Protein: Helix-turn-helix transcriptional regulator
Amino acid sequence: MTTDGSLIQSLRHFDPDAVDRPVAAWRVEVRNHGSEQPVHRHHKGQLVLAVHGGVTCEVPKAMWMVPPQHAVWIPGGMPHSNRATDNARIYFLFIAPDAAQMPSECCTLSISPLLRELIRYLADQAPDYPRQGATARLVAVLLEQLVAAPVEQLHLPISEHPKIRCITEALSQDAADRTTLADWAQRLAMSERSLARLVKKETGLTFGRWRQQLHLIVALHQLASGTSVQQVAGKLGYDSVTAFITMFKKALGQSPTHYFAALRQVD
Structure:
């Protein structure tokens, strides 16, 4: 099924759990302005695939970025929200719990051209496609390919702890904020050592590594929406474009230009 508009308008009248098929697909074209689907949950698991623009998914304790040609898997029953960039083209794939051996935790999956085309095909079919026949056979192939899709580390661990949440919200609003761990500790009435331990306990990362991962998530979101590398580097507070590119390359193995050029080749 296909629809245009905001995420809320597009999915308001669609209940994936009411679809009596193991897999259903839905395509959304977000026109002009990015939009957000508030926190919700459903029994079926959900795959969020971006083929143009990007989507940020937030689940308890983590934020996941969906750059083009990647997807985030959200297990059934997990509360989550989705935020799309301007002019995003998104596919939602809903999968019944017993349809395939999908991961039990959220993860980012790299989507092959074959898998992407199978999802596109299914989105053009009626949700109540015949249980036997060509579409049902293609769904079986789709699930086989999806189970084998590579997992990529494109997420930001977050926490509901009030002190960590305070830092997360501040950096989300101003990613260029270079407040040091010592300054944050003073602001939060803690010792620097105690705050360092808390960040590590709640996120699994050191403060410096965690902030760098936040920069990567923000950068992917902005680059996917068409912001230039120079502008993104400035918004993230890097002293030079070269420093930003170095960070990006260390994290993803390619410069931003090469990374997105490779994604466009399969768009």
